[in-house]
Every structure is written in C-alpha cells, then in structure tokens.
Specification:
This protein is mostly helical and about 260 residues long. About 5% of the residues are buried. The chain is rod-shaped, with a radius of gyration of 75 Å. The protein has 2 helices and no strands. The protein has a domain of about 160 residues. The N terminus is likely disordered.
Length: about 260
C-alpha cells in the first residue's frame, strides 16, 4: 500500500513536468510567432513607407515635370506672342514704307506731268509768238510796200507835172514872143511866165516831198508798231520749265529681328 501510494505522486510529478515542458514549449512558440508577426508588421510598415516615399518622389517628379511643361508652354506662348508682335510691327513698317513709296511716286508723277504740260504750253506759246510775229512783220511789210508805192507814184506825178508845167511855160513864152511885142514888157511877161512855172513846179515838188515824208512816217510807224507787237508777243511767251526736282524715294525700314528672342 505504501509503495503504491508512493508511486502515484511520482507519476503525478512526471506528468506535471511533462505538462510544464509542453507549456514552456508552447510559450516559446507563441513568442516566436509574435516576434515573426511583429517582424512581418514592421516589414509591411517599412514597405508601405517605402511605397509612400516612392509615390511621393514620383509625385514630386510629376509635379516638376508638370512645372517644367507649364514653364515650357509659357515660354512657347511668350515666343508666339513676341513673334506676333514682331510680325505686326514689321508689317506696320512695311505698310508705312509702301504708303510713303506710293506717295512719293505719285508726287513724282504729278511733277513730271505738270512739267510736261508746262513744256507743251511753252512750246505752243513759242510757236504762236513766231506765227504772230510773222503776221506782224508781214503787215509792216505791206504798209512799207504800200508807202513805197505812194512815194514812187508821188515822184512820178511830180515829174509828170513838172514836164507839164515846163511845156506850158514854153508854150506861154512862145505865145508872147509870137505876138510880136517888143521892149521891156516882153521880158517882164516872159519872166512872169517863168516865175509862175517855177511856183507851180515848187508847189508840185513840195506836194511830192510831203507825200514822201508822210509815207516815210507811215513806214516808220508800221515798223515801230511791228516791233512793239512783236515785243508784246515775246513777253507773253510762257515760262520755259526746267527739269523738275523730284523727291527722293524713302529708304527701306529697319525691320525687327525676331531671332533675338529664344526659348531657354
């Protein structure tokens, strides 16, 4: 009985020891599992942090790319605006140059047309003056020829009258002498006939000279009148224009160089 009683506690102790060992083993396993879980959790947190860092870095890269793209777009827009302003400014310069060129060409053409018209007026006035001067000279020549004819006629008439007076004087003297008179009275009668003939001849010569003088005055008047008319015609000749002074053509404008602006 005692032996059996003693064996029971020993067995209980053995079982108790086995249970304790098992319990310790299970505790060790539980601690290992917890440690593994903790390590896994830490690894997961580290991975998550790394992913977050990578995502943050990617976001920063994307943001930088976006900023760079925005900056590049702004620069391109600035370039386009600058090019547009340059184009508009150059076009304005070109338009101003074209307008000035047209104005100068029109002014040149007007000056040349006016000069051509003035030359034509001058040429016509010269031709008209020449024709009028010829008419004036012809009129003076007609007067001169007419007065010369009057002088010639007056001289011929005076010579004819002188011959007639001489013939009458000779006839009268012959009649006196044929009457048979004698003495001093005959000489007086003859002298009286000669004196009357001399008076008549002098009167005819005086009339002829007067006609010649009048003809000379008329010729001189016609000549002076022709000279005066010719001078008046010459004074009315239009101005002879010289070559017009044409305005200079405008210089080409200094266009703006658009290549000065460049994208960085």
């Amino acid at each position: 009985m005692c032996v059996a009683a003693a064996a029971i506690p020993a067995a209980s102790l053995a079982i108790s020891a086995v249970s304790t060992v098992a319990s310790i083993g299970m505790g060790v396993m539980s601690a290992q599992q917890q440690a593994a879980q903790a390590q896994a959790s830490m690894n997961m947190q580290a991975q998550q942090a790394q992913r977050q860092q990578e995502m943050s870095r990617m976001g920063m890269v994307q943001q930088q790319d976006q900023q760079r793209a925005t900056l590049l777009q702004n620069q391109r827009q600035s370039q386009q605006n600058y090019n547009l302003q340059v184009t508009q400014a150059n076009q304005q310069l070109q338009d101003q140059y074209n307008q000035q060129t047209r104005q100068v060409r029109l002014e040149r053409q007007n000056l040349m047309d006016r000069n051509e018209a003035d030359k034509l007026i001058y040429q016509r006035s010269v031709e008209g003056a020449r024709d009028q001067s010829r008419l004036n000279n012809e009129a003076a020549n007609r007067v001169y020829m007419g007065e010369q004819a009057k002088i010639s006629e007056a001289k011929k008439q005076a010579a004819f009258e002188a011959q007639g007076i001489l013939a009458k004087s000779i006839g009268a003297q012959g009649s006196i002498l044929a009457a048979g008179r004698s003495g001093q009275s005959v000489g007086l009668l003859v002298n009286d006939v000669e004196r009357q003939a001399g008076f008549a001849k002098a009167q005819e010569l005086s009339m002829a000279e007067s006609k010649v003088e009048q003809a000379g005055i008329a010729m001189e008047g016609a000549s002076l009148r022709a000279l005066s008319d010719n001078q008046a015609v010459a004074n009315n000749i239009a101005f002879n224009p010289s070559a017009p002074s044409l305005p200079e053509m405008p210089e080409l404008p200094s266009f703006i160089d658009g290549s000065q602006f460049s994208i960085a």
